[in-house]
Write a structure and sequence with these properties.
The chain has one domain. Helices cover about 80% and strands about 0% of the residues. The chain contains four helices and no strands. Helix 1 runs antiparallel to helix 2. The radius of gyration is 14 Å and the shape is flat. It comes from Actinoplanes ianthinogenes. Its main location: membrane.
């Protein structure tokens, strides 16, 4: 169960990062509210997961999911540039996250 919560928490990191961008410096109420809720949910989930998953592994997986999710959302939804090398490097991060899960 801790791993499922950790993955959802990593996805919530993506949500709060995108909402933070969309909040325009906290000047737009809805994205600001989404940011706050997603941030709290993400942190609570990470904290819960770290009860059974070692902190080094859990934090690295959480950050990896959030970073890759945010980069992919930026490319797919926000129109940021996508290149072979960006995608290749994101796949390396995914490989590292999967490796950490199975090394646990």
């Amino acid at each position: 169960m801790a791993w499922v919560v950790l993955v959802v928490s990593g996805l919530m990191e993506t949500v709060w990062a995108i909402a933070l961008d969309r909040s325009a410096g906290f000047s737009r109420p809805l994205p600001t509210a989404v940011f706050g809720v997603a941030l709290v949910v993400s942190m609570l989930g990470l904290g819960y997961s770290l009860r059974t998953i070692p902190v080094g592994t859990g934090y690295a997986v959480w950050v990896g999911i959030g970073a890759v999710g945010t980069a992919v959302a930026g490319m797919v939804v926000l129109g940021e540039s996508a290149s072979f090398w960006k995608i290749f490097c994101l796949l390396l991060v995914v490989g590292g996250v999967v490796g950490l899960k199975y090394a646990h």
